[in-house]
Amino acid sequence: MKFNRSLIALLCSGMLAAAVYAEDAPPPEKKEAPKTEKKEKPKAIRLTQPWSLLTTLTLEQKEKISKIHTDSAEEQKKIKDKEESDCMAVLTPEQKDELEKALEKQKAEMKEKNAKKDKPATKPAE
User: Residue 17 to residues 3, 10, 23, 28: CA-CA distances in angstroms?
Assistant: First the structure.
């Protein structure tokens, strides 16, 4: 009986010592690959038509046209969002519900139409 207790005590102290030793051990050093400087590629500027049709534009012109287009798109989005919120403010709660259902129906129809469009045509069995 004493032998079993001694053996258990010895095992427990061994496990405790192993746990303490593992905590004190420094983490293994990671070998880092030599750092090389990344060369930044100039970001390709994609223009919309008709500007993309021009082959003689300089990089500066492309950047300016791209910025003008981006700014314009942001302004258009703000105008559209304001229009929508102003129109929604005019509607009654019932009309808002009706509109939501109509939009959901329209979305489902478009999804169904796109699903049919994406399916390959199958030949009838001969």
Answer: 21, 10, 10, 20
